[in-house]
Each structure stands twice: as C-alpha cells, then as structure tokens.
C-alpha cells in the first residue's frame, strides 16, 4: 500500500447483550444469551413481543432477522396491532401429560392476578396451591386444550369434561368447563374466547346440550361474554377448612 493512498480505519464497537453486557460475537452467541435471559423476561411479565423478540439485541443491531423463524413485522413490531397478530397466531392443541408443569406454571400467574381482583390476599394465598394443581385426567381426556406460541410458551388453557370436577358425576348431555385461564401477557386479545369457541364446536359435535361452570367471582364477567348465566352463589371446598366463594353458571350448547 502506498503512503499516498487515502484510507480510513473504521473503529467498530463490539456488540453486547443489553442485559448482561456479554459480548455477542456471532449468531450462536445471540441464541445462547436469548435462552439465558428468557426465563427472566417471562418472570417480569413483559409483553409477548418484548419477552420473546425485542431483547435479541444482536438481531436488532445486526439485522439478522432473515435467519430467524419469525416474520420481520413480529420481530420489529411495537404496536398493539402486532401484539394482536401475534396472539392470533397461537397454536391450539390437545393438552398432553408432558405439558403439565408448563400449564401449572401458567395457572399460577393467571389465577394469582385474577383472584386478587375479587378476594383478599390471605384467601388467595390459601387457595392458590389447590387451584394450580391439574387433575391428571384432564391431560388424557382429549377435550382439554392449550394455546402456545412458536417457542412453546403456554398462553392459555381450558376445556371440558363430562365428569363433574371433584365428584366425577356424569349427567347425560352435560359438560363441565375446566380450568380456563390466560397468561397475563396474553390477556385482552381474545385468546380465551377463541379457546371457548373451539370447545363449543367440539361439544356440539359430541351431542352435548349444556355447559356447567363452577367459577371464581373474578371470572364471572368473562363467562357472561360467552353466553353463560349465573344460577347461584356457591362455596367451592378446596380442602379441609379452605373454601372459595364462587358462582355456578350455565349455558346451552
């Protein structure tokens, strides 16, 4: 190179994680950091876009979105419309036994937030351990469902059984609503309604005539929007001396 040649030495700042400042040398490093921080984003209850996409700082800086399995508008979207599109892309599948831990984790988040709107903190702490334990039979009945995003995060669950919760009683033509819940990050996007419409279709196909629902006070508004009507106030006995005031609702199928 001649001394007279004009050239510039460009100083390039190394890329680093916006959370822990670890250097990001390549795409594999970005993937590793993403997996490391994912549980923390979820524990903080960030929005779905923030927890799963925005925090790929390397992707944002290096424009790597073409090599990731997400559409650019999902990776870079920031408004409510993109959140709604994301919620509508959730996959609905029959729950399996191996989903149990993830479902129960989601139930803990959903029920804790919802119950505090209608009950005192002491009662919520008392009943939460019972509400978040799934009956194993739900995971093999074929009519209990989950909705999950592309990386497997459970966004909602719910379904129905012919057997009544607790007693196991079966009444001809009657189905019982079971464990409907939506992760707080996905609330307000119609996820629960979409799940119920699927249950309604399946129940009709099975020749069932009526849905019965034993619900907490906090969820009455949700069920009313689905066409349920309150029959009366009830007491839901969770365990010896542990009682949750609730409501009995019904809806024709």
Please provide a written account of the structure:
This protein has 253 residues and is an alpha+beta fold. It has two domains: 27-87, no CATH class; 90-252, Aminopeptidase (3-Layer(aba) Sandwich), CATH 3.40.630. Helix content is 36%, strand content 22%. It is built from nine helices and seven strands, in the order αααααβααβββαβαββ. It has helices at 27-43, 48-54, 57-62, 72-76, 80-88, 100-115, 121-131, 191-205, 220-225; strands at residues 91-94, 144-148, 154-161, 174-182, 210-216, 229-239, 242-252. A seven-stranded mixed beta sheet has the order 1-2-3-4-5-7-6, sandwiched between helices. α6 packs antiparallel against α7. The termini are far apart. The model is unreliable at 41-81 (pLDDT under 50).
Q: Please state the average pLDDT score.
A: 79
CATH architecture term of the largest domain: 3-Layer(aba) Sandwich
Number of E-type strands: 7
Instruction: Say which CATH homologous superfamily of the largest domain is assigned.
Output: Gcn5-related N-acetyltransferase (GNAT)
The largest sheet has its strands arranged as 1-2-3-4-5-7-6
CATH class of the largest domain: Alpha Beta
Strand content bin: 15-25%
Give the radius of gyration. Answer: 23 Å
Distance between the termini: 83 Å
What structural category do the secondary elements indicate? Answer: alpha+beta
**What overall form do the CA principal axes indicate?**
globular
Helical content stands at 25-40%
Spell out the helices and strands N to C.
HHHHHEHHEEEHEHEE
The residue ranges in which pLDDT falls below 50 over 5 or more consecutive positions are 41-81
The total tally of domains equals 2
Kindly report the CATH topology of the largest domain: Aminopeptidase
Describe the sheet with the most strands: 7 strands, mixed
How many DSSP H or I helices?
9
